[in-house]
Each structure stands twice: as structure tokens, then as C-alpha cells.
Hints:
2 domains, binds fe (iii) ion
Amino acid sequence: MMDLVFYNISQLVTVASGDSARAGSAMRDVGLLRDAAVGIKDGRIAYVGPSDGIDISDADRSISAMGKTVLPGLVDSHTHLVFAGAREEEFARRIAGATYAEIAASGGGINTTVKATRAASKVELTEYALHRLDSCLAFGATTVEIKSGYGLDFENEIKMLEVISELRDLHVVEIVPTFLGAHTIPFDYKDRREEYLRIVLEEMLPEVAARSLAEYCDVFVEKGAFTLEEAREIFTRARGLGLKVRVHADQITAGGGSELAASMRASSADHLDHISDAGIAQMKDAGTVATLLPGVSLFLGEPFPDARRLIEAGLPVAIATDANPGSCMSENMQLMMSLAALQMRMTMEEIIVASTINAAAALDRAATHGSIEVGKQADLLMFDTPNYQRILYHYGVNHLTTVVKNGRVVMERHYASA
Ligand code: NIG
Ligand code: FE
């Protein structure tokens, strides 16, 4: 007896990959089945195969997916969803010609959000983040990584991580927490860099680890943020305390962030607009996922990262939103997928792989998430499109009708007839 069955699925995109990321030409295989069915039992996938191979009368609920497309739940492996305040002012300045770096250097940027986030209560931050998680889910993300990094002192970094931890009990989207105490030097430590680093190393990291407040440690490695040497020290300490590593690398300048990510066996290195050939080769050896963030390029009016170069070099590429108030104010994974097609010349198959199994691998969850295979967690999406290509091609609108998380239908769109 199945709990839930989707049958007569016109296109079932399984992305069946076993338990690892796809790289190179394997990124072009989405494991497409036609006229297929998926059976779900106890929160897991129990059947994947032809529609006539499953008895729908032997299911608690069955949903016809005739003329529709079913995909694995999308994984958004890079967000900064917990914050207060917004930055429309800076957006206006950028539209008028100022760059992101200029705004940051003039005291705006991340520090604007740090001030607002420090002033906000946990209840307020939770409210704001719940709304944003609703948006993530509405566009198909069933698993979302969230970073701290707008507290930037002991009290407020811990406050952010406590909020992230509470969100896990409050929202159906599955949340993966990351500590980003090294996001930038906060304005009030401007002339006390050493002291801030000491607080990250000696106070924040031990507390985060002791209370299991984060699974990953991230550092923004960039001119104006943290140097390679500082990042190496932070990652070494984080590793020693049992945290895994992910990196904001090579976004604005080629700073050796990718090479550092590889040497730290990072799960993922993200941005990579200016990655070097050595960085690519070393990440490939280390098994580090290359996460690209097309929404940032769009939002900042910068050239898009060279996805073709990374895929052709054999790196597993993922895409994510980087949802945050400064460099990409959007939680919409479907939009990122269309951008990847239009602006990064990824094939539609590569993009689906990048948003599902490879993004799951970027969060060390490829064995349980990111594909529709028997035994995996039942996270899946039904789109009101006759094929998977239509989701990307017909862009800027939401094609999602049904979301299943852990085997439960958690979102369904219905339009009443007149
Ligand atoms: O991932 N690159 C650094 N940090 C964020 C932007 C954060 C902000 O501007 O608030 C990013 O793009
Ligand atoms: Fe980011």
C-alpha cells in the first residue's frame, strides 16, 4: 500500500545518479521517463517506473500527472535568507552606475544589513525569514542552505544561528545551517581586524561547534573581506571542531579562493567568476562542487561566470540563488535556471542536474536528496508543463503546481472555476 502515487506522468525527470554528483558529459543525462509513475511510502520513494506497473487503487492518494512534468525537489545550496532591512537605496545607486564594490567601500553593502540585523529581535528575524522560505518553496526549493554573516559579533552571529535553528522546526523547507562569521570585517571593528579574527576563532567557532549550530563554516575570500591566510586559519580551526567547509571564492577578483577550497576539501566553492585553471584542476581532484550564482551576475550587472569552461573541465557544477539583500534579492530557483540557460549557455539538462543532484552534493546530501530513485527521500515537484524544457523556456512565471516534501504534499495550487 503506497501513501501517495503520481501516475500518467508525461515526463518524469528522475536525475537518477545513485549517490554522487554528475560531472562533464554525464551532466546531460536527466534520466527521463515518459508515461511514468512514482510511488511514495513512509516519506521515501518506493516505486519509479512505467505508469501501468503500479496499482493506483492500492494507494491512499493518487494524483494524475497527465500532461505534466515531475522533477526532484530543487536544492538551493547558497542563501543568506536571515536578515533585517532592505537596500533599495543601494539598488537605486547601482542602477545609476555605482558598483557593488564602491558601495561597500563607502560604508554601505553588507554592513548596512549588519546594522539592521543587529537591531532586530529573534522574533522579527524569524518572521522575515519564514516569508522568504515561503517564496523558496513556492518556486520549488525543498532544501535550502542558510548562512549567518549579518551579525558579525558574538551575540548577533549566535542570534542568527539560533534563528536558523528555530526555522527548522517552523518551516517545511529543509534547512542546512552555515556559519559565516567571516563575511566581512564589521564596521565597528574596522581598525581592530586582529581582534575580530580572534573573536571568530576563539569565541564564535567553539560556541557554534559546541552547540551544533552549524554544519558548515564559510568565509568570503576577497579583497576588502578576508585574505587567503585568514581564511585558511579559520577553516583549519573549523575543521578541527568538526565543521565542514564551503567558500565564497573568486567572485570579484581571482584571489586563490578556489585553490584554498580544494586544499580544505570544501564541499563547495561558490561564485567562481574569476577562477584560475589551477583552481579548476585542484577542485576537480578534491571533489569540490562548483556552485554558480547567475542571479548575482544579473543583479550586479556583471559578466556571467564561464559555466562551459567548468563543465568541460569535468567539474560538477551546481547553481543556487545566493538570495540576499545586496547581490541577489530573489529566492526564485526557476528564474536562476532560465538565467543559466540564457546567459551561461548551459544546456537545459545540465541546468536541471545543477539544481538537483549536484546542488544536493554541494550540501553532502547526494545519497538522500536530489533525484527520484527508490529509497531516496520523497522530495518532488509537479509542473504544469508538457515537458521539462518548457519550465526554463517559458520564463518569469511560476509553473509549479504541487510540492511534496518528505512524502507529504505541502503545497498545491488550485484555481477555482468561475
Ligand atoms: O554572496 N559575496 C558576499 N556576500 C554576499 C552579498 C551579501 C550582501 O551584499 O549583503 C554574496 O554575494
Ligand atoms: Fe553569498
